[in-house]
Amino acid sequence: MALNPQYDAIGKGFVQQYYTLFDDPAQRPNLANMYNVETSFMTFEGVQLQGAVKIMEKLNSLTFQKIGRLITSVDSQPMFDGGVLINVLGRLQTDDDQPHAYFQTFVLKPIGNSFYVEHDMFRLALHDV
């Protein structure tokens, strides 16, 4: 497979769609369609999860109802298998908590004419040293 020349547009479009679903508690369960039942991996604040069911259990366990999100940058790179590596830098605020910077990295893998999230890593930029 070759590098996907549309990697930048794919990355930006994916990020917009993902956060639109994630940031609405009523729509968040629809994120399950973006993950593979068996082969998707997520690392959420150091907790490793595998498979859409476990990933969605984690996402659905988050208790906040309101999210304010500012995306600073979306950087994408093509992968040799036709996939896309996406790195997001942003700031989010949940409910009435203080805003925090965060990083989220996705690896999208091609499947037919679409993609699924093979890898998803999320980390707040907290420095508790």
Automatic annotation (TrEMBL):
Biological processes per GO annotation: mRNA transport; protein import into nucleus
Record domain NTF2: where: 10-124
PROSITE patterns named in the record: NTF2_DOMAIN
Coiled coil ranges: none
Transmembrane segments: none
A cellular component term, taken from the record's GO annotations: cytoplasm
Principal location: cytoplasm
SUPFAM superfamilies documented for this protein: NTF2-like (SSF54427)
Matches recorded under Pfam families: NTF2
Cellular compartments annotated: Cytoplasm; Nucleus
Keywords: Cytoplasm, Nucleus, Protein transport, Transport
Described function: Has a role in nuclear-cytoplasmic transport of proteins and mRNAs.
Annotated protein name in UniProt: Nuclear transport factor 2
Organism: Euphydryas editha
